[in-house]
Amino acid sequence: MASSSVFLLMVGGQIETGEFPEFDDIYCKYCFTYGQDWLITSGLEEGLTQVTKKSKDERQIFTWNFPLDITFKSTNPFGWPQCIVQAYGLDAFGTEVVRGYGVCHVPITPGRHKIQIPMFVPESSSQLQKFTAWILGRRPEFIDPRVVASGEGREVTRVRSQGFVTISFNVVMKDMKKLGYDVIPFRSDFIHGPRECRNERHINRNMMKNRSFMMF
């Protein structure tokens, strides 16, 4: 039998919780973005959680536990999938507004991972625009949320940090070793925001020698 020319990346998990202490009644949208060499073989590329209220205890967390289930295939790791999360709620006038954007790469090692994603919102470029947006209920938003997964133009975008969303991933890979990529299984009970990349990169040096492994 001919050797496989593609590898599979199977991703399960949940959008578990969120932290937005100043707000209530929040739901999330999510979508995956990936490179041109990647295809979805099964599962959902995007979805919408239920609306939930924050807990009454001192933690004040939102709990969704919304399932994720998707399988990709590709011939090379360039354009490794990223998960984009958008949180929405109602303002004082009952208008639906964005409460945060966030993004993370799907973990690059098999196993269970939990990632806390820092969320942010775009800011108006002037105080006048900010006041006008507040009066009209039209806060700054990205036309295409996938822009948060790209570095292009981000240096001129004014944003403000606002909350966190925690996602758990269960990652399974198939046939990567046949194509010259070798990854070490990794289990993490918790990964906090920017440390995700540092903790996930438990990759065998042979992988770097055999192939160029870049993520954008």
Describe the 3D structure:
It is a single chain. The protein is mainly beta. The strands form 2 sheets. A 6-stranded mixed β-sheet has the order 3-5-1-9-8-10. The C terminus is likely disordered. The protein has one domain: C2 domain (Immunoglobulin-like). The protein starts with 6 loop residues before the first strand and ends in a 6-residue tail after the last helix.
Task: Record keyword descriptors for this entry.
Immunoglobulin-like, 6-stranded mixed sheet, 4-stranded antiparallel sheet, cilium biogenesis/degradation, 42% strand
Spans where pLDDT lies below 50 across 5 or more residues: 194-216
Named CATH topology? Immunoglobulin-like
Question: Biggest sheet, open or closed, and with what strands and sense?
Answer: 6 strands, mixed
Which strand order do you get reading across the main beta sheet?
A: 3-5-1-9-8-10
Enumerate how many helices there are, as a single number. 3
Q: Strand tally, please?
A: 10
Strand content: 35-45%
Per CATH, the architecture is Sandwich
Overall domain count: 1
Radius of gyration from CA coordinates? 19 Å
From N to C, what is the helix and strand string?
A: EEEEEEEEHEEHH
Shape, per Cα inertia axes:
globular
- CATH class equals Mainly Beta
**How much helix, percentage-wise, in residues?**
10-25%
In short:
The chain is mainly beta.
Write the layout of secondary structure elements.
Layout: E1 7-19, E2 27-33, E3 39-43, E4 46-48, E5 61-74, E6 82-90, E7 96-105, E8 111-122, H1 127-136, E9 159-174, E10 191-192, H2 195-200, H3 205-210
Parallel strand pairs: 8-10
Antiparallel strand pairs: 1-5, 1-9, 2-4, 2-6, 3-5, 6-7, 8-9
